[in-house]
Model the fold of this input.
Amino acid sequence: MSFNVPKGQRKVPFFTRMANKLNPSEWIADTLNISEELPTSMLRKVGFAFCLVIIYIFFQHNFESLIRRLDKAEAEIKEKRAEYISHKSAYMFESKHSQVSKALDVRGLHRNIEPPIKIVAIQ
Done:
């Protein structure tokens, strides 16, 4: 079967075109119009993309280290809070009147059973 093609031009068969499109390096070369030598404008674009990737990696690393530090601080705060609550409950227990009187009995001080005497000054 013949094709109506002007002289000097050859029509590329369909399967050859599909094979070229399935080849990633050929597809990239055709899409970006890259020839054997690399144009400087393309080099600038690649350099800019490379800089963006480096900046992205930098910020991602900083963000992950920030998350780790926050998790560590949160765990430390929970530990300090638990310690505070246990010390507070121990203090509240020791400051009860019954516990104070027991501690004073050991030292020889006893609770006064008599009510205080009211002193009245005569003028």
Notes: The mean pLDDT is 83. Residues 14-107 form one domain.
